[in-house]
Design a protein that fits this description.
The complex is a heterodimer of chains A (118) and B (111). With 118 residues, chain A is mainly beta. Chain A has strands at residues 4-7, 10-13, 19-25, 31-38, 42-51, 54-57, 64-70, 73-78, 87-94, 107-109, 113-117. In chain A, a hairpin with a 2-residue loop joins strand 7 and strand 8 (73-78). The chains are: A mainly beta (118), B mainly beta (111).
């Protein structure tokens, strides 16, 4: 999984509780991403980071927050989990250096976290 | 209209068949094109990537990009049961800060 560790791998929680998912990389890549994957929707971007303390929203960011205090760690927090946030969450990393054919604008994914909100 | 369209299948083929998987896209700024393979309950695994137009071959896999038609393909020759998985296409522009994915095509190769 290209030096990406997601924790926990599985979690069951109750509606209304806060949940934090962690992504740790050993590749020193600048960009980190959080996606959720649901049947019929494919991968949808929640938030991404382009550097320490630099983050931006994705397509489905409502109800989620992120933090990146170190290059290697990207945290996803569900402030108050809801049943609609039951999903598989994937972290991805990318070098995303600009513009030449040799630049590797490609993503590598972690193994995922399976979250159930009851 | 979605940025990337991919037929979800499912696609079922006999072992040894040639498989063709396809995606279309609408954004002419896309320059990097990727194919991922995802086994059940696993993360997407990068299979191949290409830059701009043209073909790229790796063993039994060939990735093809036609930018004039905004169409990309993945061909699998001599398909094996171990190729049974969901295949996702993905693409991004030169700035490479956001990636756009197809919804995936489910492939089953029958022994």
């Amino acid at each position: 999984d290209a030096g990406i560790t997601q924790s926990p791998r599985h979690k069951v929680t109750e509606t209304g509780t806060p949940v934090t998912l962690r992504c740790h990389q050993t590749e020193n890549h600048r960009y980190m991403y959080w996606y959720r994957q649901d049947p019929g929707h494919g991968l949808r971007l929640i938030h991404y980071s382009y550097g320490v303390k630099d983050t931006d929203k994705g397509e489905v960011s409502d109800g989620y927050s992120v933090s990146r205090s170190k290059t290697e760690d990207f945290l996803l927090t569900l402030e108050s989990a809801t049943s609609s946030q039951t999903s598989v969450y994937f972290c991805a990393i990318s070098e995303s250096s600009r513009g030449t054919p040799l630049a590797k604008n490609i993503q590598y994914f972690g193994a995922g976290t399976r979250l159930s909100v009851l | 209209q979605k940025e990337v369209e991919q037929d979800p299948g499912p696609l079922s083929v006999p072992e040894g068949a040639i498989v063709s998987l396809n995606c279309t896209y609408s954004n002419s700024a896309f320059q990097y094109f990727m194919w991922y393979r995802q086994y059940s309950r696993k993360g997407p695994e990068l299979l191949m990537y290409t830059y701009s137009s043209g073909n790229k071959e790796d063993g039994r896999f060939t990735a093809q990009v036609d930018k004039s038609s905004k169409y990309i393909s993945l061909f699998i020759r001599d398909s094996q049961p171990s190729d049974s998985a969901t295949y996702l296409c993905a693409m991004t522009s030169n700035t490479g800060n956001q990636f756009y994915f197809g919804t995936g095509t489910s492939l089953t190769v029958i022994p």
